[in-house]
Structure formats: structure tokens, C-alpha cells
Amino acid sequence: MSVISVTKDFDSLTLTLVADFDAPAERVWRLWADPRQLERWWGPPSYPATVERHDLTAGGEVTYFLTGPDGQRQRGWWRVTSVNPPKSLEFTDGFADQDGAPVAGMPTTRVRVQLREHQGGTRMELRSFFDNREQMEQLVSMGAVEGLQQSVGQMDAVLANSAGRNERKDTR
Amino acid sequence: MVVDQLTDEAVDQLFHALADATRRDILRRCAAGGPSVSRLADAYPMSFAAVQKHVAVLERAGLVTKERRGREQLVRTDPDAVRRARQALDQLEAAWRGRVDRMSRLLAQAPGPEAHEPTRGRNR
Q: Model ipTM?
């Protein structure tokens, strides 16, 4: 198991996930810093990600789209706020329109990643949080709850190691 | 960073608040209705002040709110807010567990060609 712990703070609307990887920090960093690697894990199998722009510098932008089983594209973006390879990364993740431009008024989540050496491997601490309760409410009411059930279905599929299960989209 | 400290503190407060059987019981009573602090105090073999302290711990963790009604203070949970926060964070958890799973599997694969310098992205 690579996930060591998950804690959820319902007051500050923060998810903290700690995971250990059997690889050096530089290698784990490349999962984030190399767009071709990023797109192999950012979206779930049935909604694979394609990363278009990838500028992992402070103030830089990452743009991507997820392609669903019906061929429909959901676009998203990151705005990078802080980067310190191979140790830390902070960005805001949000929804984009079909041209890849951020959609005003749509909820965003913020992500902070920290990598450090731990027992010969790498410990990743990830915090994902909503800036405020309105954003969270908005994301829930947009039907992302459905996304949860789909993601859980996908996890079951992964655990069962059966490729043909009904795997659906991730939330972001 | 301030956000970090606040979050750690908030997490600690939440766990501290839920670690005590009396406080969990208070939370259940508050979810069922909006009892006053004095009515809560009647329900437990402890002083008013002790119950008030328990309520304060729950309040700091964001689990209950106090509402003044005349001379009384009613203690309430907001089940809807709690439920929605749970849903939202459950979604994030599911999304990130899936991602970490995939990251692990990528790392376990034989290292591919080292095509990119690690800190710079590229356009395509």
C-alpha cells in the first residue's frame, strides 16, 4: 500500500494524504514535471488526460483535457504558485472552457505537494483544499458526488484487477 | 506557512474533539435537537462548567455552533454543512487515491527513456 494515511478536516475543508513510494524523490518529481508522465496518472483510465501546456514555474500554467468514453473533452488548468524541485509544488486546479481558458465563477481546488526522502524511498504529503465553503458547495452541487461513486467503482476495478469494469470519471 | 499551521491545528482539534466519549454523545444529542447547555449539563454526572468545556472543544473544532436564545445558549450541529463537507472531501479522497495508485504503478514499471529534463515543461 502506498497510501499511508488520509485525514479530512471538515472545518478547514482540507484533505491531507500521505503516501510512500519506493523511488527516489527525483523520480517521483518527474511524475509531476514530465507532462507525458503526468498524463498517465492524472485522469482515471476511462478519462485519460492529455497535457497541452506544461510550464511548471511560479506563475506558470498547465492546461489539460480529459477525454471521456464518448469522446467528449473536459478541460482543466493549473496555475502554479510555487515550485521547488524535487521537493515541493503548489498550484490551483480549475475548470476551463473548450478553448482552455479558465471559467470564471467555477470552483477551484488548491493543491500542495511535498516530497521528502523517507526510509530509502520518498514520502509524498499532499494537501488538497477548497478556498472557501462556497467553492466546496458549488463542486458538490455540480454533481461531482456522482463522480465520487464512479471513482470508487474505478478503485474497485483496480483492486479486482479487472480491466473491463465500468470505470468513470475522476473529480478534480 | 500559515495555512499549514492552521490546518494542522484544525485537524488536531477535530480529532481531539471526537476522541472523547462524552463529546461524541453531546454531538449526537445536538444533532437530534438543539439542546441548551444547561439541558446538556443535566444529562451528565458532571458540573455545568465541565459540560460547557466539552461544548467549547466541539465548537473550536467547528462541529457545533452556539446560538443565544434569551438566557439560554442552544448548541446545534449543522448536519447539512457537515454532510456536504464530507461529500466534497470524500470525492477528493477518491480522486487522489486513484491517482496515487496510478503513480505507484508507473514508478514500479521499468524506467522508460529519460526524455525530459525534470524541472521544465514543454509545449506541444
A: 0.76
